[in-house]
Amino acid sequence: MSARLRLAVLAACVVSASAAVAQEGRVDPERLNAAVAVLAGDEFEGRAPTTPGEEKSVTWIAGQFRALGLEPAGDDGTWFQTVPINRFVHDGPAVITARAGGETITFQRGTDIIANSHRPQDHITITEAPVVFVGYGVDAPERGWDDFKGVDVRGKVVLMLVNDPDFEVAPDSPTADRFDGQGMTWYGRWVYKFEEAARRGAAAVFVIHETAGAGYPWNTLQNSSTAPGLDIVRADPERERVQAQGWIQQAQAARLMTAAGLDYATLKTAAQSSDFRPVALDGVTMSLDFGQTFSRLTTRNVAARLPGTSRPDETVMYGAHWDAYGRAVANAAGDDIYNGAVDNATGVAAVLELARLYAEAPRTDRSVLFVSWAAEEAGLLGAYYYAAHPLVPLETTVVNINMDSLLPGPASSEIVVIGFGKTDAQNRLADLASEEGRSLIPDPAPQVGAFYRSDHFPLAKMGVPALFAAAGFTGASDASRAYVRDRYHQPTDEWAADWSMEGAARDVQLLYRVGRDLAEGSDWPAWTPGNEFEAVREASAASREE
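The structure corresponding to this sequence follows.
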């Protein structure tokens, strides 16, 4: 289908939606499909941030919001929130060595160690820094866990295990289910580990790669290690980012430990106990030297709003990221465009369809905010920037309903919830699903930590309850397994003329009903007791009541 024909199909859906559909407030699968076809078209060039594809994407999305009669909710009365970012590119080779006794060990960047930096400087040099193993690098007071025990790691290279302390322990271990067992928590994510190392003043941090704990093999990291890195502009980058961060092959980490007279397996077992204390690799130091170029760029979130009637300062949010991976070197099939049809043209199409339903219905008591996030694939950057510079107060944001990767095809009797059981917002979804004879199921691959890898998460860290359901990359069905295997983050993630969005429409309909219930009510969804974000939300609730 040509670009002109796709646009014509969507326009026809806009002007000729049946009166019955409008009155019933029903998600229209044909409109969903038409919007996906537009956004996933080659003329959008893969929707990469800071490219002509971004300009086409955000302009089109804003135009859809405008046509639906929403209000702009971005900066200074516009549809956009400008997100300043830094772009980092390797500049020349890296020299990475370790000294152990009289021996020098040389590591190959990419093969043995992946080392990058998000410090805005053109050269990174670390010389003869002591090395310390800090177990899983976790400081989780609500779970009674502290891997650091007050040990000073400032100026040192820290090695951390991937995933959570209970990931591989025996069922009868005192650590069993201390975190979430096979379900990765925030503390198991490499992003957390990098941040914790920075908070403690480390010079560098390397997460020890093991395929089971990471959820992907080393070559997945290696293949993306030379791509430009993006990060939001930090107020204090020296405090928020270590000089060098990355991954180290398990065998290479074991080699360093052996050089210090230590045993990797023994240390790993010790780290699975809450009694663990950091272990210095006596006599071992590391040095790193590499260049990089960095540039200041901007990307944009798109934001639209329908103000509430009686409590406009309280907000229900829907969000989906607009970006994909842009263009790349042509693959064997000759296709160099990462169209991002499922991930995440489908999510943006869902947000637009939700905006239509709210615009055509009577206004709700609370306001409803619709955001299409920038630079999710680069590390949730648009959402992280919003979390630091919210367009509406986070303490009065009732819930954040996330849309990421809806599969084409028929409806299923089951709906996957990413982060199952984390908030009571999913209870509403369960009740509504049961009315249709459907049920909720948890993410079948919790070990990969999907809850911490989509745009609701930066706001969750700030306490905003999140609901993330119906993601297509979970492996919960034959269709989603085939998508992950054959199309996920590949140029083959393309729209096809035989697509049907009937199943996605039913899922989005339920999320509309959940959001509308909350937008018309007075309840405040809460995190499950003991959740890592509960305390933050309780503090914001206290500020609401003052």
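The CA atoms of residues 132 and 254 lie 13 Å apart.
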